[in-house]
Design brief:
This protein has 15 helices and 20 strands. It is of the alpha+beta class. It is globular, with a radius of gyration of 26 Å.
């Protein structure tokens, strides 16, 4: 069963069972400024669960695009090294807002897996929180699961909370057993982190409100939040062990191999590129652009990691943007916004490739020279900072390269160098203009003129008549300081840009 069919079967099944199909929300959460990216299906319903928002339905189902590449949930450095880590993935979910609860949630999940998808019951293993006797009884007495295929686990694995306070509750997870030929034990055993038993679906039962003092009181309307990774269930349905072997990734891997002129389709670098084109394209589609801060910097880190892996494969020409067309062909039907923004995505990636290409070769030479003269297994902090500051190597990119060489990073030394640079920037950004006005500013103005003829910018400071002011009116003569600019300042005998 192809990934697109699994997605549509899931949504249709829950629609048949009274759920409203809700479109995926953007990757930038509209209701939670503390969250870097949408990282689960429940994010767009957070205010519904807390009662701050009402919707015209009490049951919903989604296929939510998610990114886990920054903040608390960050899988970036594991991509390419494992069979199931991604920066971008799709989360299939069904939700109840004070409507049905444990029994229906469990029955829906079991029926979908065993009847709609046809998975053998004896290949499924379930877990419950050790305090949740109700869920255990439903699984064993109502559903008929073999008690020998059920594990009782603690808070770390089977209890969910929205934060230190707020809605929370026990979970029940469903695992797929890949069989005795694969190493690993069932959930709760000593070797449960191996590959035989793979979690495919998590059912969260929100039944308590947690207070600041840790006490939990029952919610008046318990709710259900579930999530099943499309890539994981596709691997099960397509009888493969790695997510990168499913149909969604095969086309991307072939496209990546073609544009990088790589013969080995098993190369880890191709996996990185195939994963990263999805997260980068959807982030740009949702309005994020490469920059030096916040979400834009996470995007830049992902792009540059992909470009470096192309470089590792021997590709010395811009290639990453050429894979967008294949991604649109694979996912544009499910996500029309991806197809509608194809040209904009290609342009943004192409520009970032051109910008990083100027320093990639030089940075790699600096790194290789340093590695060849190392007397220990640790890259010095000063070197990590120089790669970051001069050559645009995000720290996790340097770490990715170091990991391939079995090296570690001196992060403390890097942070010390960063602090010294910040102090110099603070001192350097206190400057007099025409001997009359002084600005005390953090950071610096980023020059974009090598790649841009125009740009949007944030006004950092204004001055008029020798005084720092909050505003300049039409017709005023004054000084404007920006966070970034395509204008070249008068320097070295060259006339300054105007515009």
């Amino acid at each position: 069963m192809k990934s697109a069919e699994i997605r549509s079967q899931f949504l249709e099944y829950f629609q048949e069972n009274g759920h409203t199909i809700v479109s995926s929300s953007p990757l930038i959460p509209g209701n939670d400024p503390t969250l870097l990216f949408t990282n689960a299906g429940m994010v767009q319903f957070k205010d519904v669960f807390t009662g701050e928002e009402t919707r015209p339905y009490h049951r919903a189902t989604t296929s939510q695009r998610c990114v886990r590449a920054g903040g608390k949930h960050n899988d970036l450095e594991n991509v390419g090294y494992t069979a199931r880590h991604h920066t971008f993935f799709e989360m299939l979910g069904n939700f109840s807002f004070g409507d049905y609860f444990k029994e229906d949630a469990i029955r829906f999940a079991w029926d979908f897996l065993t009847k709609r998808l046809g998975l053998p019951e004896e290949r499924l293993w379930v877990t419950v929180h050790h305090s949740d006797q109700e869920a255990e009884d439903i699984w064993i007495q109502t559903i008929g699961v073999d008690p020998n295929r059920l594990s009782r686990l603690g808070d770390k694995d089977n209890f969910w909370s929205m934060g230190d306070t707020g809605p929370c509750g026990p979970c029940s997870e469903i695992f797929y057993d890949h069989g005795p030929d694969v190493p690993g034990g069932p959930p709760g055993s000593d070797d449960d982190d191996l590959d035989r038993y793979i979690e495919i679906w998590n059912l969260v039962f929100m039944q308590f409100e947690q207070s600041a003092d840790g006490t939990r009181t029952p919610l008046p309307k318990p709710s259900v939040d579930t999530g099943m990774g499309l890539e994981r269930i596709a691997a099960v349905m397509q009888h493969v062990h790695s997510n990168y072997e499913i149909d969604l990734f095969q086309a991307l891997l072939k496209a990546a191999a073609e544009v990088t002129h790589t013969q080995d389709l098993e190369a880890k670098s191709l996996r990185v590129i195939a994963d990263h084109i999805r997260s980068c394209s959807f982030l740009i589609c949702d309005g994020v652009l490469p920059s030096n801060e916040g979400r834009g910097y996470v995007l830049r880190r992902i792009i540059r990691r992909a470009i470096r892996h192309g470089h590792k494969l021997g590709c010395d020409q811009p290639f990453f943007h050429k894979i967008v067309h294949t991604l649109v062909a694979e996912m544009g039907e499910a996500y029309a916004e991806l197809r509608d923004n194809e040209d904009r995505i290609v342009a943004a990636l192409k520009q970032e490739e051109a910008q990083f290409a100027k320093t990639l070769d030089a940075g790699m030479k600096v790194l290789e020279d340093a590695v060849s003269s190392l007397t220990s297994k640790t890259l010095p902090g000063e070197l990590i900072f120089r790669l970051y500051d001069t050559h645009g190597f995000p720290v996790d990119l340097t770490n990715d390269i170091a990991r391939e060489r079995d090296l570690e990073l001196d992060i403390a030394g890097f942070e010390k160098a960063m602090d010294e640079q910040r102090e110099k920037s603070r001192q350097g950004s206190s400057f007099a203009v025409e001997g009359q006005v002084r600005f005390d500013l953090d950071g610096s103005t980023e020059f974009l003129g090598y790649t841009h003829l125009d740009a949007s910018a944030v006004v950092v400071a204004l001055a008029k008549d020798g005084e720092q002011v909050d505003a300049l009116a039409a017709g005023d003569s004054g000084i404007v300081v920006l966070n970034q600019t395509p204008f070249y300042a008068e320097s070295g005998g060259q006339q300054g840009d105007i515009g």
